[in-house]
Each structure stands twice: as C-alpha cells, then as structure tokens.
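User: I'm designing a mutation panel for GDSL esterase/lipase and want to avoid disrupting the core. Could you give me a predicted structure to guide residue selection? Please restate the sequence first so the numbering is unambiguous.

Assistant: Good idea. Sequence first, for numbering, then the predicted structure tokens:
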Amino acid sequence: MAMAASTLPVLLLLLLLFSLSSAAAAASPAGRSPCFTSLFSFGDSITDTGNQLLLAPDGVLGHCCFPPYGETYFGRQTGRCSDGRLIVDFIGTVNLAECKDYLSKSLILLGEIGGIDYNRAFFEDVAADEIIAIVPYVVAEIGKSIKQLVELGAVTILIPGNLPIGCWPGYLTKFWSPNKEDYDPLSGCLVWYNNFAQHHNILLQQEIARLQKLYPHTNLMYGDYYGSATRFHRHPEKFGFTGSAVVACCGGGGPYNYNESLICGNEGSKACAEPSTYVNWDDHHFTEAAYKIVAKDVLEGPFSTPRFNASCLVGRASDDGLHSAY
C-alpha cells in the first residue's frame, strides 16, 4: 500500500523530466536556494491541479470534479480538491525567471507524499502500531525518489512534510473521543494524530539531511507545511478565519460538517457562504485562503529549510484576499 502510492508521483515525474530534459542546474551558495525558470509539481490531492479530471480511471470522476469545488477562484470545478487554488498555484505565481544567472534551473515540488497511505490505513481501521511501522518505508520511498531526480540532473527540490491530520474534519469525526485530554486545548485537534504526522515529518527531515550530505551540490529544501498550518489552527482569528478552523466549509452535516455517506461534491451536500473564513474546505483539504498562507509561509516566511533566495522572489505571490498575521 505505501509503496504504490509513494512511488507513483516520481514515476510520472521521471517520465516528464526525461521527455522534457529540463532539469539541468548548477550549484548555489550554501544555505541559499537558487533562482528558477520552471516549476514541476507532483504529489497527491494536495498538489493535483486537475489531472484527476482529465485522467479519471474508466471515466469515473472523483468528488473533487463536481461543484462546489473550484467556486471561489475559477467559478467552476477544475479537479482541484479545494474551493479554489492550491499551494502550488501560489508558488507558481512567483516570477521564477528574474535571476539571469540561473536560467537553466528548475524548482521541483515533490509532495506532500504519504497522506494517501496513512489516510487509507487509518480509515480502514488498520492497527495504529502497524501504521506507525510503515512510516520508515514511506519516507524511504520519498528518499529514493529524491535520489533518482538528483541523478537525472535536478538540483533544487522542495519536499514538504505532512499537514496536521488531527485537524482534518474527517479525522475529528471518525476518531471522536470523549476524553478532553485527547485534544489540543488551543486548536481542538486530535493530539495523537498530529503527533503521528510529526513523526513522519521528523523521519523525513532526517532523510533529507542524509541525502543533502550525499549530494552537497544540491538544494534539498524541507517545506514545513505542519508548522505553518499549526499557527492558524491554534489562532484562526489572527488570520481572518472567523468561520471555523476545524469544521469543513463543504460537507454533509455533523459536528465537523463531515458525513461519510454525503461528502462534498455529492448531491445534497452544502458549502458555506464564505469559504475564505474557514480553514478546511472538505474533510481533508484546505480552502484556497489557507493554502495561500502556507504557500506564503514557505516562500517568504520561516517555514522552508533552507530559506528561499529572496532576490529571486521578484514577483511575489499576490496578497489579495490573503489573511496574514505578519
């Protein structure tokens, strides 16, 4: 299970890189990311900008391919699992071609990866210790993908960690607990599941550090999606999220607006009037407003290691509609 889901993104990426031959790059000063002229992104539904709409198996479309998905920015469904744009859409708005010395460089966004493996296992009631046991294998597959990309010529790769899954409405509904100790008092999120996500992230950072030493000419960057999201989960009002930080904007009812038998996109489900005031769009995807904050935090804030080269971010992600506590 973990192997198939984790290797699919890199197989697609290897095919694309081989056909385009566009991942050539040169070394950059230590501790700084270079400038880029192109962006490649592969991962799961957190990064899919519409492939599932075009490549649906047997013509069967997923629920993200139906209204009200896409309503905020596009005015129609595009295959993105949110009300509008994703993190990669905002990263892509940055003018990556301003630094003339690095015209041949590309930024590769690899992930996030692992979410599908873990979600499926948890929701199929696989024992917790068995799920914990697959984490090193998922991380190892990500490491193999990084190594293959570097050997093909990639130099700068942004590898995001997992988001705080204990804050997803789907998890909060399925794993509801009567014990207050099971919840973060600031965010209302499930502590154990967030700790699990952090366990994955710690192992991933260790793997990135190992590969960075193995390939010192590369820029292997860790994207701390978890750290960024934790800020607005714990203090949503500071970021303009006056609706809810744990309830889904779109769903089929219930305390967290998640109903397994009536998910967002199905006939009878309903979306909130103002998605930008909610963190969560559906059971395990953010709204455009939340994704935009994560993108800004990774590009311009302290949530990438090493930090992005500020001189390259000439055309920064626009701030219209962006809730920010900076």
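For picking mutation sites, this is relevant: The radius of gyration is 19 Å. The first strand starts at residue 38 and ends at 42.
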